[in-house]
Specification:
Layout: H1 2-23, H2 29-45, E1 64-65, E2 69-72, H3 76-119, E3 121-125, E4 128-133, E5 140-142, E6 145-149, H4 150-154, H5 160-171, H6 174-187, H7 193-217, H8 220-230, E7 241-242, H9 249-254, H10 261-290, E8 293-295, E9 301-303, E10 309-310, H11 318-328, H12 333-338, E11 341-350, E12 356-363, H13 369-378, E13 386-388, E14 391-404
Parallel strand pairs: 1-14, 2-14, 4-6
Antiparallel strand pairs: 3-4, 5-6, 5-7, 8-9, 8-14, 10-13, 11-12, 11-14, 13-14
Helix pairs in contact: 1-2, 1-7, 1-10, 2-7, 3-6, 5-7, 6-7
C-alpha cells in the first residue's frame, strides 16, 4: 500500500509540475480542464497495474521472488512484528478518524446549500434557477442554481455579466469537478498535492467562465473593471463557484491573451509524450521488481509482462504472509543443537483455486529445516488466485528463509 501511495504521489507531482511549466499560462482552458482531471485519475490508476506493457529489456521468464524471512530462536522478530501491527492499527485508526471528520465537513457543506435553498426565495428567470437569499453574499453557483442576494438582485445592483459568469459555470458542469476533487481530498487527505490541483482547477473554471462572458458581451475592459470592483468583497463559499475567486493579474491577462496554434500543438505533443513515458516507466519499474512465471489454463508458461495479469494475494496482503510463516515456523530441535546459521530456499505454486502446491526445495540446510518450511506452507490458507485476462492462472513463487539458531 505504501508503494502505491508513493508511486501515485510521484505521478501527481510530475503531472502538476508539467501543468505549471507548460499549460497554466496558455489559453487552452478546455484542454487544461481535461488534463488536470485526467492526471489525477491516471495517477491513481496506473500504480494499480491493471494493465501492463511488455518491456523490451525483459526477455527472460522468471519466478516471483519474495522477500527474505528471518527465523530466530528468541522472540525478537515476533516482537518487532507485533510493534508493526500496533503501528499499522494506529495509522489505520488515525486515517479513519481524520477521513471521518472530513466527510462530516463535506456533508455539512452540501447540506448548507440545501438549507439555503429551503430558507430562500427561488425563482426561474430566463430559464435559470435563481436562489434569492437574505444573506449578504456575492453571486455564486452550485449544481443547477445561482445564488444571489435578494435586495441586490431586485434593486438591479448585480450586473448581467456576473449572472452570465455563474450560468457559464453551471452549463459547463464545474460543480462536478469540484465535488470530484473534494472526494479525492477526503480519501487522500495526507497528500497535500490535491490542494494544488483543486486551486488550479477552480482557477481554470474562472478562465472558462470569463471567456464565456466576453464572448457573449464583447466588452473585455468593462468586464475587467467590474471584476476588480468585486475582488475584495465578501468571503468565498466552499464547494461553490465564486465570482471573486483569485481575481489576479493572471486572470485579467488571460482575457486578452492571444492564442498561438503552433505553440499549443507543441505543448499538447509534449504533454502526450510525458503521459506515454510515465506509462512505460512505471510499468517497467513494476515488472522489474516481480518478473513472473505464469501457467495458463492449458498449463503452458506465459510471459507475465505481456498479459493483463493480476498477481495472487495472500489474505490480508503479503506482509501477513511473512508474519504467518514467521509465527508458525518452529526450528527443529536437531537443527538447534547444531547451532548453525544459514539460508534455505523453496519454490511453491499458487494454484488456480488459491491453494499451494508443488513445493520444491531449492536449497536445504538439513536437519529437518526444509521439511518444517514445507509444513508451514501447507498450513497456509488459500490465496486469492492470479488471473490472466479475467481467467485464473497458476503462479510460481520463490521464498528464501534465513534461520539463526541460538548460539
Amino acid at each position: 500500500m505504501i508503494t502505491y501511495f508513493l508511486k501515485s504521489g510521484l505521478l501527481l507531482v510530475i503531472f502538476y509540475a508539467v501543468y505549471k511549466l507548460l499549460l497554466e499560462n496558455e489559453k487552452m482552458f478546455r484542454f487544461n480542464r481535461i488534463y488536470l482531471l485526467g492526471s489525477m485519475i491516471f495517477s491513481l490508476i496506473l500504480p494499480l497495474q491493471l494493465f501492463s506493457i511488455e518491456s523490451i529489456f525483459l526477455n527472460k521468464i522468471k519466478v516471483i521472488q519474495l522477500n527474505e524471512i528471518m527465523i530466530v530462536t528468541n522472540k525478537a522478530i515476533l516482537d518487532k512484528v507485533n510493534y508493526n501491527e500496533i503501528l499499522a492499527d494506529f495509522l489505520t485508526i488515525s486515517y479513519a478518524v481524520i477521513a471521518g471528520i472530513l466527510v462530516f465537513r463535506f456533508v455539512r457543506n452540501l447540506y448548507s446549500f440545501y438549507n439555503r435553498i429551503k430558507k430562500s426565495k427561488v425563482e426561474i428567470i430566463e430559464g435559470q434557477k435563481m436562489v434569492l437569499t437574505k444573506e449578504s453574499i456575492l453571486p455564486h453557483s452550485f449544481w443547477n442554481a445561482v445564488f444571489v442576494n435578494y435586495e441586490d438582485f431586485k434593486n438591479g445592483k448585480i450586473p448581467s455579466e456576473l449572472i452570465a459568469h455563474e450560468k457559464a459555470h453551471l452549463e459547463q458542469k464545474h460543480t462536478l469537478d469540484i465535488l470530484f476533487v473534494e472526494v479525492l481530498q477526503i480519501l487522500f487527505w495526507f497528500n497535500p498535492i490535491f490542494i494544488q490541483y483543486k486551486k488550479a482547477i477552480k482557477l481554470n473554471h474562472e478562465f472558462l467562465a470569463d471567456e464565456a462572458v466576453n464572448k457573449q458581451f464583447g466588452e473585455v475592459r468593462n468586464y475587467q473593471n467590474l471584476l476588480l470592483g468585486f475582488a475584495s468583497q465578501k468571503e468565498t463559499i466552499s464547494l461553490a463557484s465564486n465570482i471573486n475567486y483569485l481575481i489576479t493579474k493572471k486572470r485579467l491577462l488571460m482575457m486578452t491573451k492571444k492564442e498561438s496554434p503552433t505553440k499549443i500543438f507543441l505543448k499538447i505533443g509534449s504533454v502526450t509524450a510525458v503521459y506515454l513515458l510515465s506509462l512505460f516507466a512505471f510499468n517497467t519499474g513494476a515488472l522489474a521488481q516481480s518478473g513472473n512465471n505464469l501457467i495458463n489454463q492449458n498449463d503452458d508458461k506465459i510471459n507475465y509482462v505481456s498479459a493483463n495479469v493480476k498477481e495472487p494475494q495472500f489474505p490480508g496482503g503479503i506482509e501477513k504472509f511473512y508474519m504467518f510463516v514467521g509465527q508458525n515456523f518452529k526450528i527443529p530441535q536437531e537443527f538447534s543443537k547444531q547451532k548453525i546459521d544459514g539460508k534455505l530456499a523453496l519454490e511453491f505454486m499458487v494454484e488456480k483455486d488459491g491453494s499451494l502446491s508443488e513445493f520444491k526445495v531449492v536449497k536445504d540446510l538439513g536437519y529437518g529445516s526444509a521439511d518444517e518450511a514445507i509444513r508451514v506452507l501447507k498450513l497456509s490458507p488459500k490465496w486469492m488466485p492470479a488471473s490472466e485476462n479475467g481467467k485464473p492462472v497458476r503462479v510460481m513463487y520463490s521464498l528464501p528463509i534465513t534461520i539463526q539458531a541460538e548460539k
